[in-house]
Design goal:
The protein is 46% helix and 21% strand. The protein is of the alpha/beta class and 298 residues long.
Length: 298
């Protein structure tokens, strides 16, 4: 059994394709096929079922994933145990939401830059659905998003922090002076919202639908910074994570509206794929993000 066979096996598992795995690893497809055939012969079991152009793990193949991961991780530790003090320098690709990119990542990246200046970092912003797809196809090292509490046996979750989602308006608006506001009345005002069917916007739409209500936003846009700018100028109402508007609230520019009948929280979460070797650069980013979250709670 060779380490390259294990790496090939895990890459096929992640890509669900021999040809895509071959492209990523720089092998010919025939070389990938031979590696898996030899591995299956040595283990005396079939690891994959071929279904048309795709492949799926057999039950034995699913069990072998954890063994292959453990072997490669232990081998990597053995190869690097004498280099723990070396400066981190490997690239790090993080996928996140635009709102988190503007509000939560700057402080973490500042700490990261101070401690690990040689690590080139790339940030990709997308929806939770798109980020998950990119992670599962090995296009991202780590994903950091806000959504319902998510779980998948193929993912490692390393952080989960509850975040309230709030209705906000300009602190100078008449709504900000109201003690309580019914949802049915609130939705008559101009709304600036993120795009439909994504995380907190999806939760609002589902609630309204359950009450026989509907909302036609004045504007839909993925850029939360633009939405906040419009609300600060007393242009209407929005529904956003508290962390995205916290500074404006503390500075007296925005106000949280009291809508007792609809209180909702989602969760900031960090994942990486179980088939992904957790590099020291990934470990450092995760540690700094967790420390930042702990600092917020103090």
């Amino acid at each position: 059994m060779e380490l390259r066979q294990l790496q090939t096996f895990l890459t096929i598992t992640q890509m669900q394709s021999f040809s895509k795995a071959a492209q990523i690893l720089g092998y010919s497809q025939s070389a990938v096929t031979v590696q898996i055939r030899l591995l299956e012969e040595e283990l005396n079991t079939r690891l994959f079922d071929r279904l048309g152009k795709g492949v799926v793990l057999t039950s034995n193949g699913q069990q072998f994933v954890s063994y292959a991961n453990n072997i490669l991780q232990e081998m990597n530790r053995a190869m690097h145990f004498t280099r723990e003090d070396e400066t981190l320098h490997q690239p790090l690709h993080i996928g996140t939401l635009e709102s988190l990119c503007f509000t939560k990542l700057p402080a973490v990246l500042h700490y990261f830059r101070e401690n690990y200046p040689r690590v080139p970092i790339r940030i990709t912003t997308a929806t939770p659905k798109e980020l998950i797809e990119k992670m599962e196809h090995n296009h991202l090292d780590i994903i950091y998003f806000l959504d319902r509490s998510r779980y998948n046996e193929k993912w490692n979750k390393v952080m989960e922090v509850e975040e309230p989602i709030v209705f906000v308006a300009s602190a100078s608006s008449l709504l900000a002076k109201r003690r309580e506001i019914p949802v049915a009345e609130l939705i008559q005002f101009p709304f600036f919202l993120t795009e439909k069917d994504e995380n907190y916007r999806r939760e609002l739409d589902h609630y309204l639908e359950s009450k026989g209500l509907s909302l036609t936003p004045f504007l839909e846009i993925s850029n939360t910074e633009f939405i906040i700018k419009m609300i600060r100028e007393n242009r209407g109402v929005s529904y956003l994570p508290y962390f995205a508007v916290k500074d404006c609230i503390e500075e007296g520019e925005l106000a949280v509206l009291n809508v007792p009948e609809f209180q909702k929280s989602l969760y900031r979460q960090i994942f990486y794929h179980k088939n992904k070797w957790k590099t020291r650069e990934m470990e450092a980013f995760i540690r700094l993000t967790l420390e930042d979250a702990e600092e917020e709670d103090r």
